[in-house]
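Sat 14:20. Reprocessing the chain from the morning session after the first attempt stalled halfway. Input below, unchanged.
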Amino acid sequence: MSALGLETLTSCFQGLIPSMFFTCAADGTPNAAYLSHVDYVDASHVALSFQFFNKSRRNVAENPHALVRVIDPDTQQGWALRLRYVRSETEGEIFDRMALRIEAIASYCGLKGIFKLRAADIYEVRSVTKVPEEPGLPVVSDRRREQNGVFTMQALQNMAVRVNRAHGLEHLLDEILAGLEDIFGFTHSMILLPGERPGTLITIATRGYVEKGVGAEARFGEGITGMVAEARKPIRIAGLMRGMLYAYAARFRAEEAGWGPPQHRIPMPGLVNPASQLGVPLLVRGELVGVLCIESEIPYRFHEEDKVSVEVLGSFLAIAIQNAVMHEAAEGSSEPRSAAAGSLPAAMSAPPVRRREVSFHQADECVLVDGEYLIRGLPAKILRKLLLAHVTEGRTEFTNRELRLDKSLQLPEYKDNLETRLLLLRRRLDEKCPDIRLVPAGRGRFRLELRAPFGLVERP
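Finished this time. Tokens:
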């Protein structure tokens, strides 16, 4: 098999199974080392990650010939690639792609900025041969293609129809994730939008997870979602052993300054042991609208064509999300229409259940319900305002416009994202405290529905 057939081994270059790198010094002394990643460059070149392998580097400087052994994760067939060193790159597309993947994995265990790619070493592939001691397994059918959805023009058209039929931001986000599952077979996914604080993302919609995690925050550079937001580039990871890294990641996130105690954080949703992850930035004219993350327990679930297709799809979804946010903001800023005559809050006919204590903690600007953390920031301040107005004035009807004009909420003058924060608050209440609901009641209006008595407590 010649090097011109290198593109047929793309499954070997996903990092599912570690590769062995063999070099030899000028005096004939051999050396073997494990490689975290071998990257496909073109039909006759690969790139090897240079991180800590000083002995291998010295050998290559003396003798530019080397051998790398890769294994096909689908068939277990081993392949020996005989290489000749060409050059090292410390910048550019190849280096950035490899560095981004390494940084994304490193960020899970708190090694971001430490476990760094020093260079992408480019090698010419002189020959490719099968490894006889790793003959591989017979392949009866292409199991990967049976498990994967196919990005056809019809599938993309079906997705576009679902998106175009969505009414409002909330329905749109749900339709996007439902379409990814129904049309393309991606069962676990989430969408994060920019948070209140600079350099943060907030989970606004999820699908397929036991714990929905709506309201969970991620900082730029943290995990795959944060790395995608920071680099504004897609990241595809195959063979991610999150089970080994999860404990490090949890400790790292909890101990970092500025995130508050664990009870005041919403855990990020996710599979316990994902084998594949794909994150795509949602960009409109260079502006980050959000991040779409998909994951799977199947190794090598996301192929190169999947990454490219989801990236193209993400451009369309970003425009749809931005338009929905702008449309709702425009409606919420105008004078609302009158509510329909005779409409009554559902809470009037709902029997009281048990008294709920809602406490607003001023220092952290967060709300706890019966001692359990609910939400923080602007959504917390909005909930406090609504409940206080109900206690003092008996109000149940509110408008987006009055919230936007309320100086006590300290909304930014530009892109306040009020509608997104209201959606986040509504979903958190539905998930954690269904006795308190915010129900849309017409253009720019919503209704506070109380299905249980509550006490509002102010705490320092």
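The first helix runs from residue 54 to 62.
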